[in-house]
Design brief:
mainly alpha; single chain
């Protein structure tokens, strides 16, 4: 039986993960469908509109890996890399720091912050001593 502190942290983890999953599902869906907003945003970032589908497929695949408990850590690692590219893109364009450049960092904080209390493997990696 879990202690109340442990169960509270698991609930917080699920909420953080759920928020990230909801936002990323919307974002990937918009890319896969090819909405005008997604196309315009991609072009404004300096990428060709025909890259929208591959970007959406990559994001959706990483997200599916994150959603499946057994593969959640690899999904988090891959999404971290994906959003590293977003951070670099916004930095290159000189976009605002907190709303654009760090937006990928905020998503990853939710991904990892949600995964840490839910996954003993991640906690063991963080707590290991070398």
């Amino acid at each position: 039986m879990m202690s109340s502190k442990a169960s509270t942290s698991v609930i917080v983890g699920r909420v953080l993960s759920g928020l990230a999953i909801a936002a990323l599902t919307l974002d990937a869906s918009m890319k896969l469908i090819g909405t005008k907003e997604a196309i315009d945003g991609t072009v404004q970032l300096g990428y060709a509109a025909n890259l929208l589908l591959p970007l959406g497929l990559i994001q959706a695949t990483c997200l599916v890996l994150y959603v499946i408990p057994r593969t959640s850590p690899i999904g988090a690692v891959l999404l971290t890399g994906y959003f590293g590219g977003a951070v670099a893109t916004h930095l290159r364009l000189g976009n605002p720091l907190f709303t654009h450049i760090l937006s990928g960092v905020w998503v990853c904080v939710f991904l990892w912050g949600g995964l840490y209390p839910r996954d003993a493997r991640v906690r063991a990696l963080v707590q290991s001593e070398g």
